[in-house]
Design a protein that fits this description.
By secondary structure, the chain is mainly α. 75% of the residues lie in helices and 0% in strands.
Length: 421
């Protein structure tokens, strides 16, 4: 029911993290899946997807209730905001993926058709793409450690610090319930499992969708490198001849037109990718500065903090910064590869007298030069991913967000020390 090959004749391997999108109910069904007596599976999968969204939403509601009742305590507020904002970010992600299934499916199909580079061809570019995806594996590892610590550390505290007979037992996050969550062990265990799995869905959706986004950008940059190679070799055949006939000029013009078509396909896919991901990116960039600020505040001001919680916040801020950096660095790579196209076009020796002398002055040769010059002009406009046009995904955005986080952190710290006086 998830098999892309039902719709495309191209076999390609998605990042392993995408398995979690399927487990969380965010992966799109293909239309043919519903026709093959699979309507029951489709209904069950859709129901599961909405259960995941509802469980995350309910958990955020419990966290928000706790946040509202502890606004006067800056330490408790910032600690609670770390998990509440992370949950809100990925609640938006889950909802966006569920409500845009058709758009998501078309984006994957467009990638398979226009962008994917088969592994048995262009081995050097494929190797570079695989190497770039390693950074997402590091991010996945950090986030996996983070959610494991959130789920396991309260149990360590329960059995080794507060004791199993404590009236109020710890949960993975700070939450306030509209009922007595400690009335029985069974109720406590069920709520603990429910909220823990909601957190697992939040974190796995984060690194799975980011890995898919990075996968798309990495291979789009790979297509730009292939395009640059084709541009660099556009005159190879001409240099081996003493004269170019009218028929060969026509073939040369066709070769340029194929390069233009491939360039347009890359640009169209980048635009489709931006249209799909920019709502998520906007929320991500807005929340990231707050998350980094609040987690850093917890690390600096935490007194008598359990060593496990201290390590947890260290992992949290490392994963938050690395997640933001990886996204911005990939967006910056796309800008660099797209703008480099103009330099390759200009540097392909189209104005070299030794090549120009091989052509008779015809309308076709003039059209070739005009088309090439127009392509150079178009390539000077960078292909970039924006967050709803508010911000461009680049390393400049990364430094701007860190600067904003430091400003928020300075403000929080000054307010905290004023309260201590």
């Amino acid at each position: 029911m998830f098999n892309l090959q039902q719709n495309a004749d191209i076999n390609f391997r998605l990042p392993v993290q995408c398995v979690w999108l399927k487990m969380n109910g965010s992966w799109p069904f293909w239309p043919s899946s519903r026709k093959n007596n699979n309507s029951t599976s489709y209904f069950i999968y859709t129901a599961w997807a909405w259960y995941v969204i509802a469980s995350v939403g309910i958990t955020i509601f419990f966290q928000t209730a706790y946040l509202v009742t502890h606004l006067s305590d800056i330490i408790m507020t910032t600690e609670n905001c770390c998990t509440t904002f992370m949950g809100a970010l990925n609640f938006v992600r889950l909802l966006h993926l569920r409500l845009n299934q058709r758009k998501f499916r078309k984006l994957i199909e467009q990638f398979a058709r226009d962008i994917w580079i088969p592994e048995n061809t262009h081995t050097s570019i494929n190797a570079e793409c695989h190497k770039r995806m390693f950074t997402f594996s590091i991010m996945t590892g950090l986030l996996s450690c983070l959610i494991c610590m959130y789920c396991a550390l309260p149990l360590v505290e329960l059995f080794f610090r507060t004791g199993v007979d404590a009236v109020e037992k710890p949960f993975p996050y700070k939450m306030l319930f509209p009922f007595d969550a400690y009335s029985s062990w069974m109720r406590y265990v069920l709520i603990y499992m429910f909220t823990s799995y909601a957190g697992i869905c939040v974190v796995t959706t984060l690194f799975a969708e980011d890995s898919l986004f990075g996968f798309f950008i990495t291979y789009t940059c790979g297509q730009f490198r292939l395009l640059h190679e084709r541009v660099d070799n556009v005159w190879t055949a001409a240099k081996e001849r003493s004269e170019i006939t009218a028929n060969e000029q026509h073939l040369q013009l066709q070769r340029l037109h194929k390069i233009v078509q491939q360039h347009n396909k890359i640009i169209r896919f980048a635009k489709s990718m931006e249209d799909f991901f920019n709502p998520i990116l906007l929320v991500n960039l807005m929340i990231s500065s707050l998350l980094i600020c609040m987690v850093g505040f917890q690390i600096i001001t935490g007194k008598n903090m359990f060593i496990g919680d201290y390590v947890k916040f260290i992992v949290y801020i490392s994963s938050a910064i690395s997640q933001l950096y990886v996204l911005c660095e990939n967006g910056d790579a796309l800008i660099r590869h797209s703008t480099t196209t103009a330099w390759h076009l200009y540097g392909c020796k189209w104005e070299d007298p030794s090549i120009s002398s091989l052509y008779s002055y015809t309308a076709m040769s003039q059209q070739f030069r005009s088309d090439l010059q127009f392509m150079i002009l178009c390539s000077q406009r960078p292909v970039r991913i924006t967050a709803f046009k508010f911000s461009t995904l680049s390393l400049q955005s990364f430094t701007a967000i860190l600067s904003t986080s430091m400003s928020y952190f300075t403000l929080l710290r000054s307010l905290y020390y004023e309260d201590q006086l």
